[in-house]
Amino acid sequence: MNTNRFEALPLAAPLQQVLKELGYEEPSPIQAQAIPILLQGKDLLGCAQTGTGKTASFALPILQQLHERRKTVRPKACRALVLAPTRELAGQVGKSFATYGKLVKFRQTLIYGGVGSVPQINAMRNGVDVLVATPGRLLDLIDQRHVDLSQVEFFVLDEVDRMLDMGFLRDVKRIISLLPSRRQSLFFSATLAPNIVELAKTILEGSRAR
Ligand code: AMP
Description:
single chain; 9 helices; globular
């Protein structure tokens, strides 16, 4: 399905309402392609750069599924995990979830390095719906048993090319090994170099790039 109006996408009322308030009319190409696929619960390998609207292309379908299937999150756990390469990008993704999910009841927090970990540990104590994290600090907190990935239903690997450039491959692979095998996986990269496709193949089941 390819559509050029948000109203034509099967997005729930609280999301349509926010999009209207934001003045978004047309989905960008990545949004028009990815949103219907992701709402069906399929995996996705998306080739998209920052500025293409890719954050909404994964945040909207995740928020919709959280909204439709409310669940109690266990202590230290999360339902959606988004990995981003830097603190700045993690912050931007967190802001986007807050904006697009303004009318959806959900909790989220950020985990990144370079700052004290106590507030992050406290924020995870009762579990969250959405956790946006950079790989290194996330692994530290997992190793210290402050974060539990066994409840993850949605896994997003954002800016994969930058993640690999920054030497996070081993960390990312370790994090993936801790995820439940039954999950929806979303993988976004600005380029599709062979090492990126290779990593994507090990992560994604079902659908590939469209
Ligand atoms: P992103 O590529 O996700 O970082 O988004 C780039 C910018 O485009 C952000 O400031 C978004 O708020 C904005 N944006 C995303 N999707 C749309 C859309 N469909 N219409 C207008 N603006 C958008």
